[in-house]
Amino acid sequence: MSSGPDGNHPEERSPTRRSATAAATAPAAGRPSLEAGQIVTVFRSRRRAGSEQEYERVAAEMDEHARRAPGFVDIKTFAAEDGEQVSVVTFASAEEQAAWRADARHRAAQDRGRSMFYDEYTIQTGPSTRVRQWRRPED
What residue ranges define each of the domains in the chain, with the CATH number in brackets? Predict the structure, then answer.
């Protein structure tokens, strides 16, 4: 394993191995605990013009609903310079991610997205096989 910029090894988590430096590199307060074995979904999309207000309303409802779902870990959404949006959603297990995928309110929002909000999207889903974390030590 390579050293971080200060010569320390970054935290690496796998389903079978935990680093002895876990306490030193644990997530900061308010940050999600990312672990190997969690299920990560990458949702890449391009939205239709003219649907922004309704999209924002539905997206806010789904964000709130997802955060209450069993096994929810984190969601982050980013916008690229070319207009593509990317959301990275993490659930604790495949079963909990599958339950979210099958959730009736989520399914209804997906149907609405296809009919009203999106020109295109791609979804990639799979288990995280390794997590490496590094945080600058406090002075």
Answer: 40-126 (3.30.70.100)
